[in-house]
């Protein structure tokens, strides 16, 4: 919101808890969608996204991504990390979008506090209107300008489908380290490999490059998304390997666990409830075909 000329007016609305008016003020580039969004949650979310894709066909891929996200293979990776959340933890999801991951955190782990951060006020509005309970704190912020969290406060951070969209990766890693407790855990799931062609936007990074920019701050464990996805379906534990700086890293995407330099990389226990969830969830592999054979 830093450079948005409507910021002050929107903040005035928010100070009076008038979320609808704030939304209409901030979404001045999507004028037709403003009037549709103002009626939320009366319009079902899938229908709202379908209408949005018709009004703004240039963003059709984005609307479809939001619509199918709960069934995407890479979303399953993020759900696997919920097994690392303890009951009294403070949890942050960076790039939370409309809040699908945090809704499962609230249901399956019941931590002390839940915080969602995203640069899109519109997506946070959808999260509040449709998906997340009112006790979830939602923050509209660009973490490339700093993480709006005090020092050593967070137990668990999830960044799914997002790290490749971050340009100032080394700065963001330093901010994650600053905000995380000494025994905290950070999960970067589905990170594009810079050596491979990937669908979607952003700037990929190889495991070796991530190790180089983060080794002074974290112990870093890695696992290919293919192995991660296979273990989520077929095993109880997900094991991260150490990064070899001379590795070729031939696969299109990897996931990572970061813990402070004095910590240990933990085996990730797959939540029992995820197993039940997978049995009844038809996974959409349209953008993640390389994971289809993993199951």
Describe the protein.
The chain has 295 residues and is of the alpha/beta class. It is 37% helix and 19% strand. The strands form two sheets. The protein has an eight-stranded mixed sheet with strand order 3-2-1-4-5-9-6-8, with helices on both faces. The chain has a two-stranded antiparallel ribbon with strand order 7-10. Strand 4 (154-160), helix 9 (169-179) and strand 5 form a beta-alpha-beta unit. Helix 3 runs antiparallel to helix 4. The radius of gyration is 19 Å and the shape is globular.
Question: What are the salient characteristics of this protein?
Answer:
two-stranded antiparallel sheet; alpha/beta; globular; single chain; Rossmann fold
Based on CA atoms alone, the radius of gyration comes out at 19 Å
Named at the architecture level, the CATH assignment of the largest domain is 3-Layer(aba) Sandwich
What's the rounded overall pLDDT mean?
87
Strand content: 15-25%
What is the overall number of helices? 12
Secondary-structure-derived class: alpha/beta
Tell me, what is the CATH class of the largest domain?
Alpha Beta
Q: What is the terminal-to-terminal distance?
A: 42 Å
Q: Mind summarizing the main beta sheet?
A: 8 strands, mixed
Reported by name, the CATH topology of the largest domain is Rossmann fold
The tally of strands reads 10
CATH H-level homologous superfamily name of the largest domain: Vaccinia Virus protein VP39
How many domains make up the 3D coordinates?
2
User: How would you write the strand order of the largest sheet?
Assistant: 3-2-1-4-5-9-6-8
Helix content, binned percent: 25-40%
SSE string, helix = H, strand = E? HHHHHHEHEHEEHEHEHEEEEH
Shape: globular
Weakly predicted, low-confidence segments: none
């Amino acid at each position: 919101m830093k450079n948005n000329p409507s910021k002050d007016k929107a903040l005035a609305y928010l100070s009076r808890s008038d979320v609808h008016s704030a939304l209409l003020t901030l979404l001045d580039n999507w004028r037709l969608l403003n009037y549709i969004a103002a009626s939320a949650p009366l319009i079902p979310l899938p229908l709202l996204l379908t209408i949005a894709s018709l009004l703004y066909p240039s963003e059709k891929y984005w609307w479809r991504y939001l619509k199918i996200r709960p069934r995407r293979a890479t979303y399953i990776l993020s759900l696997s990390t919920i097994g690392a959340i303890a009951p009294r933890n403070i949890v942050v999801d960076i790039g939370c979008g409309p809040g699908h991951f945090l809704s499962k955190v609230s249901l399956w782990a019941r931590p002390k506090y839940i915080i969602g951060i995203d640069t899109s006020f519109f997506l946070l509005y959808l999260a509040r209107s449709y998906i997340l309970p009112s006790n979830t704190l939602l923050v509209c912020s660009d973490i490339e300008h700093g993480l709006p969290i005090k020092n050593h406060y967070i137990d668990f951070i999830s960044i799914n489908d997002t790290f490749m969209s971050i340009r100032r990766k080394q700065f963001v890693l330093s901010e994650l380290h600053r905000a995380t407790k000494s025994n905290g855990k950070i999960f970067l799931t589905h990170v594009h490999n810079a050596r491979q062609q990937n669908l979607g936007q952003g700037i990929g990074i190889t495991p070796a490059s991530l190790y180089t920019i983060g080794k002074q701050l974290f112990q870093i464990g890695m696992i290919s998304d293919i192995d991660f996805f296979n273990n989520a379906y077929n095993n109880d534990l997900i094991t991260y390997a150490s990064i070899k700086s001379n590795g070729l890293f031939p696969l299109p995407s990897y996931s990572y666990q970061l813990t402070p330099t004095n910590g240990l990389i933990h085996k990730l226990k797959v939540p029992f409830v995820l197993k039940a969830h997978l049995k009844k969830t038809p996974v959409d592999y349209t953008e993640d075909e390389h994971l289809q054979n993993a199951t």
